[in-house]
């Protein structure tokens, strides 16, 4: 009997011990919880609500990736991205969070970048602390003082070019009590794109600085692609559900007149802030701004999201679909449903033969070969910045046409292509202080492209051989 009592006492002890242990484990656990790794999502998805959690140290790890992706059907573009997507990964924080931000620049990237978050109170929005070269990472921290939906973007010169190439995204700072729960949440961001070719021209399209400066967009798209949320990629909801859209506008130039055909926004957080407007048809989203729109979908069907500057929607790509399933509600809507009224008109999809210039670097046997191969490399690599006739762009990219700086020193030009260039230089009497990335080209390719440049546009007709490049590469 007493043995049995002992046994029970023991059992109780063990039990209380173990519960105690659990308690201490729990405490430790909640200490760890004070630091939390942020869940980052790709568009059109957003991370889980912060709900009622307390403010924390929030660790955000983001990697910049420069990569070729499709911009429209048959049209490719080299995007510069935060996290591999356009727009970049969605960050969801809470007011009072201390964000420990680490920005990594992938070693295969060609350019330095940084990040300016509009949610930051501090110089440059983080841009100065986060400037990072390929292969490096930078960390900085900031406290989220204001709730709201904020844009982040790269702010490395030329800033417009970095943004035009897709370097923007959204960070949501939820109020202390969180946002009211809804059934569906999505992440949408508009951006305007400028290509060398016309809207719809196939193949790999380089960025066009002149069109960007003239604000003549070839494409205006949601989430980096004309079809990002169309057809099988449409975002979805069920009839009767509440939908919240986090809508940003990366620009670089255009303002968005955001509208959903067949819906009225029950609530709009105007400009992403605290001001709430109700029963809104179209909300204006500035470049570098955002809005939170909320509505209840009452009846099933296909709802088109667009920039109501309609040529952008139907001819340049700023069009997406919300597909709502469920039962009819004839009290709310009983019109005849016809499919295919609002479809993109295909201005962006032209049946042109693909003239994607492939650069296979054959060995040049004579000057004529060198000029031909050199031109291909120029058009694929240097042209985006130095322009088609080597004329450059005032204050941003120096000219290579009749350029005193270029003609003064051939070895120096080789070195610039091999290693890149930054710091102030003077070309034909104008100063430039910018960054040229090093170019990943072979000795032969560098010899050809420089020979082509020296033989074009009133330059000195110097001839560059692969041996000369090899010597400079070896540091001789
Ligand atoms: C991303 C833009 C960019 C690309 C691509 C680029 N450059 Fe440059 N380049 C620049 C910038 C910016 C400068 C000036 C840097 C400075 O201010 O220090 C420059 C300077 C130069 C210079 C010296 C200044 C002059 O006018 O003579 C040469 C030579 C040059 N680049 C050649 C090339 C060649 C050849 C290519 C292609 C293989 C190329 N660049 C690709 C941006 C670029
Ligand atoms: Cu950048």
UniProtKB/TrEMBL annotation:
Metabolic or biological pathway: Nitrogen metabolism; nitrate reduction (denitrification); dinitrogen from nitrate: step 2/4
Origin species, per record, is Galbibacter marinus
A Gene Ontology molecular function term for this protein is: heme binding
Indicate the quaternary assembly: Homotrimer.
**Which InterPro entries does UniProt cross-reference here?**
Cu-oxidase-like_N (IPR011707), Cu-oxidase_2nd (IPR001117), Cupredoxin (IPR008972), Cyt_c-like_dom (IPR009056), Cyt_c-like_dom_sf (IPR036909), Cytochrome_c-type_DH (IPR051459), NO2-reductase_Cu (IPR001287)
Localization, per the record, is: Periplasm
Binding site residues for Cu cation: 113, 118, 153-154, 162, 167, 308
Q: Which NCBIfam families match?
A: Cu_nitrite_red
The answer to keyword Nucleus applying to this record is no
Family membership, please give it. Answer: Belongs to the multicopper oxidase family.
Source organism, top-level taxon: Bacteria
Check the record and name the CDD domains matching this protein: CuRO_1_CuNIR, CuRO_2_CuNIR
Cite the Cytochrome c domain residue spans from the record.
369-457
Keywords for this protein: Copper, FAD, Flavoprotein, Heme, Iron, Metal-binding, Nitrate assimilation, Oxidoreductase, Periplasm, Repeat
The alphabetized list of GO BP terms reads: denitrification pathway; nitrate assimilation
- Any single Gene Ontology cellular-component annotation: periplasmic space
Q: What is its EC number?
A: 1.7.2.1
Entry protein name? Copper-containing nitrite reductase
Cofactor(s) needed = Cu(+); FAD; Cu(2+)
Q: Which reaction does it catalyse?
A: nitric oxide + Fe(III)-[cytochrome c] + H2O = Fe(II)-[cytochrome c] + nitrite + 2 H(+)
Q: Which Gene3D superfamilies does this UniProt record tie to the protein? A: Cupredoxins - blue copper proteins, Cytochrome c-like domain
Q: What is the first-listed, main subcellular location in coarse terms?
A: periplasm
């Amino acid at each position: 009997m007493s043995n049995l009592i002992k046994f029970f006492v023991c059992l109780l002890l063990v039990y209380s011990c173990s519960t105690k242990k659990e308690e201490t484990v729990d405490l430790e656990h909640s200490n760890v919880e004070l630091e939390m790794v942020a869940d980052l999502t790709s568009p059109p998805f957003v991370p889980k609500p912060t709900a009622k959690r307390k403010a924390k140290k929030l660790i955000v790890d983001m990697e910049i990736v420069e990569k070729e992706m499709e911009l429209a059907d048959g049209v490719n573009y080299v995007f510069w991205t935060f996290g591999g997507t356009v727009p970049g990964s969605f960050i969801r924080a809470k007011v009072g969070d201390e964000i420990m931000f680490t920005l990594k620049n992938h070693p295969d990237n060609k350019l330095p970048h940084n990040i300016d978050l509009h949610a930051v109170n501090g110089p440059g929005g983080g841009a100065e602390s986060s400037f990072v070269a390929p292969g490096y990472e930078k960390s900085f921290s900031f406290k989220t003082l204001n709730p709201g939906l904020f844009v982040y973007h790269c702010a490395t010169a030329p800033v417009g070019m970095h943004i035009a190439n897709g370097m923007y995204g959204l960070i949501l700072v939820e109020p202390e009590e969180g946002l009211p729960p809804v059934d569906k949440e999505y992440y949408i961001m508009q951006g305007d794109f400028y290509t060398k070719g016309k809207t719809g021209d196939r193949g790999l399209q380089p960025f066009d600085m002149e069109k960007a400066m003239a604000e003549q967009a070839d494409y205006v798209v949601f989430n980096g692609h004309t079809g990002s949320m169309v057809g099988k990629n449409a975002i979805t909801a069920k009839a009767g559900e509440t939908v919240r859209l986090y809508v940003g506008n990366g620009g670089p130039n255009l303002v968005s007149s955001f509208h959903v055909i067949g819906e009225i926004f029950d609530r709009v957080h105007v400009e992403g802030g605290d001001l709430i407007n109700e029963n809104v048809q179209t909300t204006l989203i500035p470049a570098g701004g955002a809005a939170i729109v909320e509505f209840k979908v009452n009846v099933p069907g296909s709802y088109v999201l667009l920039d109501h500057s309609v040529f952008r929607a139907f001819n340049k790509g700023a069009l997406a679909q919300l597909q709502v399933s469920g039962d009819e509600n004839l009290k709310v809507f009983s019109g005849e449903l016809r499919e295919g009224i609002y479809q993109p008109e295909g201005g962006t999809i032209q049946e042109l033969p693909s003239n994607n210039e492939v650069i296979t670097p054959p060995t040049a046997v004579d000057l004529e070969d060198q000029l031909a191969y050199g031109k291909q490399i120029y058009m694929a690599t240097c042209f985006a910045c130095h322009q088609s006739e080597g004329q450059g762009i005032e204050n941003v990219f120096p000219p290579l046409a009749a350029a005193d700086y270029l003609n003064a020193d051939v070895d120096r030009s080789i070195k610039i292509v091999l290693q890149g260039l930054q710091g102030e230089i003077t070309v034909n009497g104008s100063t430039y202080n910018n960054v040229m990335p090093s170019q990943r080209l072979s000795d032969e390719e560098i010899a050809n492209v420089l020979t082509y440049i020296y033989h074009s546009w009133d330059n000195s007709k110097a001839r560059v051989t692969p041996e000369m490049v090899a010597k400079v590469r070896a540091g001789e």
